[in-house]
Design brief:
alpha/beta, four-stranded antiparallel sheet, 10 helices, disordered C terminus
Amino acid sequence: MLRVENLTKTFPIRGDTGRDGPDVLVAVDDVSFDLHDGEILGLAGGSGSGKTTLARCIVRLEQSDSGRVTLGDVNVLAARGRERRALHRRIQMVFQDPYASLNPRLTVGTALAEVATVHDRLDGADVDSYVRRLLDRVRLAPGIADRRPRELSGGQRQRVAIARALAAAPDVLIADEAVSALDVSVQAQLLDLFLELRADAGLSMVFVGHQLAVLAAVADRVAVMQNGRIVETGETAAMFRDPHHEYTRALLDAHPHADPRRRFAIGPDTE
């Protein structure tokens, strides 16, 4: 489905930092991985590990220095014009902060209809009906369509952000820390929703997160990033049971409840 090969991204270090060494920061360093059809791949790592930059490079919100990203037989990084617009539909991203990613001036219904219209997803359907179906898909009441983001709770806003991504009918969803800003009960509900979307729509997902218990609840495989590189990849339960890399072991030691055998084992009080 999605293949990332030898992707690298650096940022210049500007100003007098008083440090010796290179004048660039290597945020993503020669990263390669495959995302299979219908798979949820967890991308784990601490702050500064490069996982969000990697996600942004895949959807071309950041311009990578080198490497290749392919979706099927299409070169994502080389696409131009109509082909690039088509790829924007096929790969959608859900961000950590939905309040920042949603237009505060637009009602929810207008925001969803805009995406569906731009990507020609209505197929003759009534706009209001299409919006209602999207809201129902993310478990929101139809009346939400008339509200603006400031009128919604954090969990509702994130559901709207997911609905907006679904409005384009994507093949791949990139979720960047999509539940980390929410409380535990809302996290569990949204994780359940992501699993339903995978089952119902056959979506493939890259699920970026620093909470290993969250990844344990949704990911089929996990890739662990440290200092811009993937240091270990494996099937979730096997990796969490027997991690090979010292950094993976350190992450698990810091998150003792990341047990893939327990449903939504997010905190010490979760049963």
